[in-house]
Amino acid sequence: MAVTLVNPSGLPDIPIYRQVSVATGSKLIHVAGQVAWDADGTTVGDGDLAAQVEQCYLNVGTALAGVGATFADVVKLTMHVVDWRPERMPLVLEGISRAAAKLGITPAAPASLFGIVALDVPEHLVELEAVAVLD
């Protein structure tokens, strides 16, 4: 496998991701920010952050599969959440958990979450980007 995920000693152990990824592959994959659209371009989970997070993860999974990759190949995830407040974290975790169950994965790549003012479509509450590597 081209990606090794680690939690170096001296850094906190975060349950939902590892602090560092080491990529040794030769094919770098950048997945554009995925929003809560279904295959027809219809917004999923209007007003429901957990549902939109779930759909974003499903869309990233679809994008990765389209180029022969999986979440096991992901080296970095970046999430942008509209109107972020720390008390919304349980909704983000719920969405990740539901997507992980559907995809049969444990997303553990290093991740960042940024609070933002707005996305391209007013109904969109979250956008998820991924970087992956393949041998």
TrEMBL record:
SUPFAM superfamilies: YjgF-like (SSF55298)
InterPro entries the record matches: RutC-like_sf (IPR035959), YjgF/YER057c/UK114 (IPR006175)
A Pfam family recorded for this sequence: Ribonuc_L-PSP
Name under which the protein is recorded: Enamine deaminase RidA
Organism: Paractinoplanes deccanensis
